[in-house]
Design goal:
Blueprint: H1 6-18, H2 24-45, H3 48-66, H4 72-90, H5 93-105, H6 107-113, H7 118-136, H8 140-169
Helix pairs in contact: 1-5, 2-4, 2-7, 2-8, 3-4, 3-7, 4-5, 4-7, 6-8, 7-8
Length: about 170
């Protein structure tokens, strides 16, 4: 039996997410667990320069938030960068590798199922600020819970939109 390389596994995951062969529910369930763990680990392993990098990303996110609907795409990119920065700070290459594959492809789900409402960007920004604050204050359990709830809430919005779309098609 031939051993799988990390590239082959990554490529398979990439294809599953890219072509939406993974349901929103399954993707969210996975992300809720992983993002919570990653945020908790980031608290334990963050250095002062990591906190400064996270705060810079928040400043970038705020700039795009203030642009309103015109800043949506850039805001989402910075949101992904915050999640990936936390994975990097957590220091486990497996989390980084898997989350990078997901974030390289999750945009399709967002574009299809997440309404482009300024209110959602504001909620998203508030969540990110609270997660970064918990990391800065060394609150691992809080960061874990905040990250899980962040993923959970936005996934529920996307699931509701997916169900509404399916009902309209019937």
């Amino acid at each position: 039996m031939k051993a799988l390389t990390t590239y082959e596994v990554s490529e398979s995951l990439d294809l599953l997410v890219r072509y939406q062969r993974v349901s929103l529910r399954d993707l969210a369930e996975f992300r809720e667990g992983v993002e919570g763990i990653v945020a908790g680990l980031a608290v334990e392993r963050a250095k002062s320069e990591d906190i400064q990098h996270l705060k810079k990303l928040l400043a970038d996110a705020k700039t795009h938030l203030e642009e309103g609907a015109a800043g949506w795409d850039e805001f989402i990119l910075v949101d992904n960068q915050v999640h990936m920065a936390l994975a990097n700070i957590a220091g486990n290459p497996i989390y980084e590798w898997v989350l990078q594959t997901i974030y390289d492809n999750i945009r399709r789900y967002f574009d299809q199922f997440l309404p482009r409402e300024e209110r959602l960007l504001r909620e998203n920004y508030q969540d990110l600020c609270e997660i970064v604050e918990a990391v800065e204050k060394g609150q691992a359990a809080k960061a874990h819970l905040l990250a899980q709830n962040h993923v959970y809430r936005f996934n529920r919005i996307m699931e509701e939109n997916e169900q509404e779309r399916q009902s309209a098609e019937v």
